Amino acid sequence: MSEILRVGDAVPDFKLETFEPSKGDFGEISISTLKADKKWTILFFYPADFTFV
C-alpha cells in the first residue's frame, strides 16, 4: 500500500518521462533533480485524460 501524503509533506523521489516540444525530443525529470536545481514544483494529479476534473 502507498504511503499517504498530506499538504506540507516531502514528496518521495520519482522519475517521469517528459517530452520537450521545443526540442521535439523525449527526456527525463526527477524530484531530486528539481530540488538540486532549487526549482519550485507544483504537482497536480487528476484521474485520467479526457475526464472532467
- The chain-level structural class is alpha+beta
Strand runs, count: 2
Q: Report the mean per-residue pLDDT as an integer.
A: 82
Please state the CA-atom Rg, rounded to the nearest Å: 14 Å
Largest sheet: 2 strands, antiparallel
**Beta-strand percentage?**
15-25%
Spans of 5+ residues with little confidence (pLDDT < 50)? none
Characterize the overall form. Answer: extended
- State the strand order across the main sheet: 1-2
How far is the N terminus from the C terminus? 25 Å
Question: Helix share of residues?
Answer: 10-25%
Continuous helix count: 1
Instruction: Write the H/E string, N to C.
Output: EEH
Please summarize what this structure is:
The protein contains 1 helix and 2 strands, in the order E-E-H. 11% of the residues lie in helices and 23% in strands.
Any key phrases for this structure?
53 residues, alpha+beta, two-stranded antiparallel ribbon
Describe this structure in words.
- The chain has one helix at residues 31-36, and strands spanning 15-20, 25-30.
- The protein has a two-stranded antiparallel sheet with strand order 1-2.
- It is an alpha+beta fold.
- A hairpin with a 4-residue loop joins strand 1 and strand 2 (25-30).
- The two termini are 25 Å apart.
- The longest helix is centred in the middle third of the chain and has 6 residues, at 31-36.
- It has one helix and two strands.
